[in-house]
Design a protein that fits this description.
alpha/beta, 2 domains, 4-stranded mixed beta sheet, 3-stranded mixed beta sheet, 4 helices, 9 strands, 27% strand
Length: 214
């Protein structure tokens, strides 16, 4: 069985530009432009980093995309399965729409504000219930539950993280699916950060995905 290994290269932005550089380089004068990177790019100059940091750039053009609305994956804490002596935060999975709906409803009842379901959908990856607080229509949460047939993360505890992020159950495992899975995990696990490049390579017994992240 092939494994997917995810490598993240973090790039920290430190700048020290001399006066001559500032005169000859717009980006170092604060005139930032939206950058364009290759998906497998590994070298970035100062202007690349400044342009990425100080514009609305977020991910490369071919990166996996999601809605901008707040996404929340139901878990052991949100539905009240919690042991104070041994706390765990584990994202749930099921292939039953009824069970996913029940977990979403339990979470909504336990929340500080109850949000009603305004729509729902399912993909190969998850069940999703769009919930809105009636008193504030701008308060929207996409309540989600992983489909076990796609991704099982019940062995990963956010309170005690390990190297095993989950078990991918789609077949066959190939380059395209591996890249989409890695980017899906990144997008739904990062509240901050920008991806400069994202690419995957096939090794003898596993796929290796690399992120260059600012």
């Amino acid at each position: 069985m092939k494994k997917l290994t995810i490598l993240t290269v973090l790039i920290f932005l430190f700048t020290a530009c001399n006066k001559e550089d500032e005169q000859n380089d717009d980006c170092k004068n604060g005139n930032y432009t939206f950058p364009e990177f290759e998906s497998n790019q590994t070298a970035f100059d100062d202007c690349d980093l400044l342009n990425a940091a100080y514009t609305h750039y977020y991910t490369p053009p071919d990166f996996y995309e999601e809605s901008d609305e707040s996404r929340y994956y139901e878990n052991t804490v949100s539905i009240g399965i919690y042991d104070n002596d041994n706390p765990e935060w584990i994202e749930l999975c099921t292939d039953s729409l009824e069970l996913a709906h029940a977990w979403s409803e339990t979470s909504a009842v336990r929340s500080s504000y109850y949000r009603v379901i305004t729509s729902e959908r399912e993909t190969e990856k998850f069940f999703e219930f769009r919930r809105v607080r009636e008193e504030n229509q701008n308060d929207v949460i996409l309540s989600r539950v992983h489909k076990c047939n796609y991704l099982d993360r019940t062995m990963y505890d956010y309170f005690n993280p390990d190297s095993l992020l989950g078990i991918y159950n789609m077949r066959p495992i190939n380059i395209d699916r591996g890249k989409e899975l890695a980017e899906y995990l990144w997008l739904n696990s990062h509240l901050i950060g920008k991806v400069l490049s994202s690419y995957i390579a096939e090794k003898d017994e596993y796929l290796e995905h690399t992120f260059y992240e600012l």
